[in-house]
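Minutes, project check-in
Item: structure for the 544-residue chain
Input as provided by the requester:
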Amino acid sequence: MNYKVLYRKYRPKDFDNLIGQDYTKKMLTNIIDSGKIGHAYIFTGPRGTGKTSSAKLFAKAINCLDCHNGNPCGKCTNCEQFASSPDIIEIDAASNNGVDEIRELIDNVKLSPSTLKYKVYIIDEVHMLSASAFNALLLTLEEPPSHVVFILATTDIQKVPITILSRCQRFDFRPIDTKHLIERLEYVSKEEKINITPEALEEIAFISAGGMRDALSILDQVAADNEKVDVDTVITNFGTISGERIKKFVDDFLENKVNEVLKFLQDVSDKGIYYSVFLEKLILELRNRAVLIKLNKLKYDFQIIYDLIIELNNCLSNINININPYTLIEMAILKYLQPSGENTDAKQFEEIKEEKPSLPSEEKTIAKPEKVEKNISREIKEVKETSKKEKVSDEFVKIRVNNCFVGANKEAKQKFAEKWRDLLDQLAVTDMYMMSLLADCEVEAASENYVIISCKVDSTNALINSSIKEIETLFMNLYNIDCRFVALTKDEWQKVKEEYIANLKNKVTYTLIDEEYEEALSEESDELEKLANEIFGSSNIEFE
């Protein structure tokens, strides 16, 4: 078998051909030129970024008899013998990670080089060594014979003990940027006479995630059929997805086309598109839209896009413990969509539900929540028909925040937090519209009669405050508790919390402010000066 895979065939033969690691390359060549050769180095970075190649180049250069600008000449006796020299020892720590292997290494370290100037030990994936193996290596790594150089390589620097790191000079290899990857792929394609489109090269560069070895391996595979390689070839073979489809999906999301979003996500799952590639492309496209919003070139809610990006990023870290990653992604995205079609209004939702055929009595018993003793949906529907959906005033919010802080305490917060979770369970069955509004809210502070809730999605905060009377009716009907609510965004809550803590430290007391619910909803109060004097006060109760 004479064929050599591309990533081996195009392994850099000198530092000039090391792609995407300019700073590390400069530092290493300076060390070689100066002749100040250390006894131990550690190379760390993602896979396929040139760690092992650089280790071999460094080992070759320090043994070269006619080195130029830090590069081995490739012509001297030492360079010609380098590949087969017994003085260059490569160890795979993944399969040779025990203390016995390290002890054998220590015994051999004492022997002088047979042909070269330095005996070089290249230990790949050094983080895989056992604790006892690391301990056995410590003394030798700190004070090896003058003719020995250690080069350790790892993709997980966090697992290397600090005692090892402190004995080595560290060099960090960064993911290779897309531009350099594409340039190298173009060069290799031209040399190998591979007929490939620029779009396909860009797709390969993207899914290789900064690794040159991965990029060349993918190019090797898609070029195997000797036909023209386009972006569809890459997408079909490697479980990725085109940028155009991602853009269309984001358009549908921003326009709240729930059915289109669901169809797309189902298609992603059915085709087995690799979820990490899909999420990375989606996050990148959302980032681009967020930038356009800030540049005033796009008219959408920036906060929703920002919150969704954070949510999707969290999916990447939690997805490995989930049975079906596509379900987790779907739920994260649907959370930021409003109910579509007829179901967007809770009243209409109730009417649709009543038109469904009756279930057998046994099924009704199973489906009905045990805690619901009244027709909550009907009562809420009546409240919605009689109440005005007007935007609440800032005055109303400030009064309720102040009044909550008058008697805020930990026990009340815990009590309302438990009932809040129970309320959401009830709404999941009785009122999906209200459930969609309140799903991301949590209780932040509470007194006997007042509750402050915070909402993760800023755009729904005003809707929640305009539905406050409905929430209060729910609590009265379910728990026979007469309490008053107010909703804040996360930023607003953080601000009032800091003010409250500062007032506690300054021993400023809070006093209860009278409020008229309807007046607070309908218009701005003209007593701003009075509020400023009365809103802050003291409470000796611990605030959490």
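Outcome recorded: The longest strand covers residues 148-154.
No further action items on this chain.
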